[in-house]
DNA sequence: TTAGGGTTAG
């Protein structure tokens, strides 16, 4: 949503009660931090920027962020390491203005000859690309180029962001200009371009790039796997099989990656006869399936609600002596949970897993919530916080929030939201806002729903058309006239998110 | 990013 539109509607907005952002903001009064460790330094900087310390308002541009940080007495005492800077940029990955402000502030704190780490530069490029601020991104890359700071990794970010936004010819242009960045056109950089195009389903365009370049640059086995994936993504498995032959012609043996890619394609076609045929072929061909292969098949079976068959695939993997990794076990736990086998899921979680991550906990928490065992679910959340192996994300909280709504406990909803924002610095995403707005409407609390709607708009997150309609209907029922006007205005002026399929 | 996920659904 453009600043212009926001300004135009800003005036009528400020007269409305409750004020936008008030919901989350009121939830977010955090205590004065002691700045003795990196995470509290990061928290303080975050609070300065989002306006919970010092000023009241959230900032609107990068210079304001810069000035706030420069003028804050506690920020002046912060030791700004590369890790802290990266952590901050990561937190502001959806807010390019704040990210650039932080970077500028970081620059002002350093000695003249000192450069940011390559990760920080690349993160900034990626954040600008994600926000589709192409001019700012090009300008930033130009400055990096003068500092000889552009790496292949930077180029990867630029290409993938361009291609992801449908600007795939721009991605090709970046490759053509590699020499200007002091980088080489070789198999690695060519593969990056081909992969970018294939992932965006421009496999024919990738093909023409290869034909053009192959006199100078030799393809390798990765090149062919990239094309196999490209064909499979566009559901052209015949071409993928043909690429396997082409690969052999170039003297490369198809590997477990080549076969697993094709298996996934058969999975999506629900052609399980072919899936199992290929599995046997792999075993016979001396490229045995691995944990990735089995996880792919299980996930697909799960999406068909074929949980028992999925568990048989897991058993087959164990029989063949292959060790599962975290993603495999996460899938297994999810399967067991969906199959109603809670005790088995608990056993796998406690005794079998080599390591766990956020998703593992999320699956377990969702399982407990699903079985109305919220006490156990919250216990796991606390365990997660205590062990610090992985941190909760918005998905950790979704089932918990859902349970609160189910019991009609909106106080607890508020408490959980506060915890998300203040304790874990999670920012609500589009799907969380949508979910909350729906549930508050259904709970006959459309004032809260409307607050969240405003909060969402103020963060440039476009609501779904359906969300607007639902909320509009509710505020009309309560004769909230200004809210009605405001929602109708948003529906006319903002490009709304299409409903999810 | 050369291959693998689900997540809030009355």
UniProtKB/TrEMBL annotation:
PPR repeats lie at residues 220-254, 255-289, 290-324, 325-360, 393-427, 429-463. InterPro entries: Mito_RNA-Proc/Resp, PPR_rpt, TPR-like_helical_dom_sf. Keywords: Repeat. The keyword Repeat applies. Pfam families: PPR (PF01535), PPR_1 (PF12854), PPR_2 (PF13041). Belongs to the PPR family. P subfamily. This is Pentacotripeptide-repeat region of PRORP domain-containing protein. It comes from Brassica cretica.
């Amino acid at each position: 949503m453009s600043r212009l539109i926001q300004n135009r509607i800003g005036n009528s907005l400020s007269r409305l009660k409750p004020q936008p952002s008030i919901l989350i903001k009121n939830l977010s009064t955090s205590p004065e931090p002691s700045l003795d460790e990196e995470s509290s330094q990061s928290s303080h900087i975050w609070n300065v920027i989002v306006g919970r310390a010092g000023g009241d308002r959230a900032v609107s541009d990068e210079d304001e962020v810069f000035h706030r940080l420069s003028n804050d007495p506690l920020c002046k005492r912060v030791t700004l390491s590369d890790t802290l800077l990266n952590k901050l940029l990561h937190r502001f990955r959806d807010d390019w203005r704040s990210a650039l402000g932080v970077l500028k502030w970081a620059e002002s704190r350093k000695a003249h000859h000192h450069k940011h780490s390559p990760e920080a530069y690349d993160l900034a490029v990626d954040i600008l690309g994600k926000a589709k601020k192409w001019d700012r991104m090009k300008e930033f890359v130009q400055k990096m180029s003068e500092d000889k700071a552009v790496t292949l990794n930077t180029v990867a970010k630029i290409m993938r962001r361009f291609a992801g936004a449908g600007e795939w010819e721009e991605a090709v242009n970046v490759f053509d200009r590699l020499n200007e960045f002091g980088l080489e056109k070789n198999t690695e950089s060519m593969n990056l371009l081909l992969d970018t195009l294939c992932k965006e389903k421009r496999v024919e365009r990738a093909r023409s790039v290869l034909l053009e370049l192959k006199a100078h640059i030799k393809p390798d086995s990765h090149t062919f796997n990239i094309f196999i994936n490209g064909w499979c993504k566009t559901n052209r498995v015949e071409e993928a099989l043909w690429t396997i032959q082409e690969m052999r012609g170039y003297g490369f043996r198809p590997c477990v990656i080549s076969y697993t890619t094709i298996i996934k394609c058969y999975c999506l076609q629900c052609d399980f006869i072919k899936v199992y045929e290929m599995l046997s072929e792999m075993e016979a061909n001396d490229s045995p399936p691995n944990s990735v292969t089995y996880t792919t098949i299980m996930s697909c079976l799960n999406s068909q609600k074929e949980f028992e068959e999925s568990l048989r695939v897991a058993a087959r993997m164990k029989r063949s002596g292959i060790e599962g990794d975290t993603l495999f076990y996460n899938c297994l736990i999810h399967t067991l949970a969906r199959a109603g086998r809670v005790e088995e899921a608990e056993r796998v979680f406690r005794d079998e897993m080599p390591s766990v991550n956020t998703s593992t906990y999320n699956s377990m928490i969702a399982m407990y919530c699903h079985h109305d065992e919220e006490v156990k679910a919250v216990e796991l959340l606390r365990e997660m916080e205590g062990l610090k192996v992985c941190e909760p994300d918005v998905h950790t909280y979704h089932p918990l929030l859902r349970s609160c709504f189910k019991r009609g406990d909106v106080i607890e909803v508020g408490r959980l939201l506060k915890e998300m924002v203040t304790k874990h610095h999670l920012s609500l995403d589009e799907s969380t806002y949508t979910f909350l707005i729906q549930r508050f409407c259904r709970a006959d609390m459309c004032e809260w729903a409307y607050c969240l709607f405003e909060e969402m708009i103020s963060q440039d997150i476009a609501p779904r058309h359906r969300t607007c309609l639902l909320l509009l209907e509710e505020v009309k029922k309560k004769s909230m006239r200004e809210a009605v006007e405001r929602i109708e205005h948003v529906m006319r002026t903002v490009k709304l998110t299409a409903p999810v399929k």
